[in-house]
Structures are given as C-alpha cells and as structure tokens.
Amino acid sequence: MSQEQDQPPQDPPLRAIKSFVTRAGRMGTGQIKALAELGPRFVLPYKPERIDAEAVFGRKAPLVLEIGFGMGGATAEIAATLPDHDFIGCEVHEPGVGALLKLIDEKQLTNIRIVQHDAVEVLRDMIGPDLLAGVHIFFPDPWHKKRHNKRRLIQPEFIANLVKHLAPGGYLHCATDWQPYAEQMLEVLSAEPQLHNTAAGYADKPAYRPLTKFEARGLRLGHGVWDLVFRRRA
C-alpha cells in the first residue's frame, strides 16, 4: 500500500474566509495562573493529526465538540451536568481559555479539554469521521452587516464537512439571539441531506443548555433566542 493510501482521508479545503476576528484581551491574574498551571493538562496543542479521544480522556464516552465557547461558563456547566460525556472546546481568544481553565479547577471537572485554534481546522485535521456524539455552536458571531454575512460560520460548505464527523444519530445544536442568522441557520441546516430537524422549525431550549446572564437579560427585554437541534441521519 502506498504512503498516500496510509493517510486518513481528509476533508476538502474549506473557504479561507474566517468567521472570527482575533481580538487582544486583557488577562486577569487568575487566568494567567490557570493557563500556566492547568494548561499543560487540559489544553491540547493543535496538530494536523487525529485525536485519540479514549487516550486523551482515559475512557470511552460520548464526545461533544463545542465551537467558540467564549468565557466558558456554559461549557463548564454542561460538562458538570453531563459527567458521562467528554467535551472538547475550541476557542481562539486566550482570556476565554484562561477563564474556562479556572472553572475547570473550581468545579473539579475532568471531562473537558481545550484546543486554542480555529475550529474549522481542528474539525478538519483533528476530529476523525463519525466520531462526535454532538456539536454545540452557541451564539456565534452573527456578523450583522450584510456585506459581512459571508463570514458567518454556518454556511453550506462548512455544514457538509461537519456532518462527516458526527456519528450516525449524532446531533448539532446551534443557538443564536439574532433572528436573521437564525433564519439562515434553519435554511442551511434544513438543506443538508444528511441532517434532519428534531423539531418543526426551531427547537425548545434543551435542558442541558444553561441560560446565560446575557441571554436572561435579553429575554427580559423581549429579545428572542432561537435554538436549532438537528441529527445526522442513521
């Protein structure tokens, strides 16, 4: 067998347009300390090679990928609520990584690992096919201006590649508080032949997704939040 045949199949290259802008953020002393002390254990370096999840977590468990966890509050709460699941969180902003590491320590969580890198490349290079029990994409940047809509993460090409990494029956859960983006998400996800909607349109918020302070404030002011939960066809 040739060397090329030995290599795992790779997804085709995705669009070069980034769905995020890397911003410089201030790091608190607690975040700096968490990065130094906990980073070596909980932060996985980006490598163009497939993750062995059982080796990383020391067990076999359903694996969920979260794309863009922000400051990590929801991630930590979900991981604490679902201790029988393992979670890999992708976030490019270092303050968010430090904040989640602090929460991992405070809550004594062992079922989270972090990759500080572009999630599109992590998914393509590090996550094997049919591996994921679920994917969480909560409140991605809506890129409000029409000329910036092309930067939105949820696009047909991205979803077509993401689906390959979901196990049959695995779920994709997206949430947004920007109605035009919710409409785009529903259109894109509904058009992907390997996915089916678990609801007649938008879904009720699953119990495992915590209500953030920002979200609760918006709801009190009459703002909407839209959840979408799709599953890969078996």
TrEMBL record:
EC number: 2.1.1.33
Any one GO molecular-function label of the UniProt entry: tRNA (guanine(46)-N7)-methyltransferase activity
Keywords in alphabetical order: Methyltransferase, S-adenosyl-L-methionine, Transferase, tRNA processing
Top-level EC class as recorded in UniProt: transferase
Reactions the enzyme catalyzes: guanosine(46) in tRNA + S-adenosyl-L-methionine = N(7)-methylguanosine(46) in tRNA + S-adenosyl-L-homocysteine
Domain of life: Bacteria
Chain segments carrying region Interaction with RNA: 147-152
Similarity-based family: Belongs to the class I-like SAM-binding methyltransferase superfamily. TrmB family.
General function of this protein: Catalyzes the formation of N(7)-methylguanine at position 46 (m7G46) in tRNA.
Name the record gives this protein: tRNA (guanine-N(7)-)-methyltransferase
Source species: Pelomonas aquatica
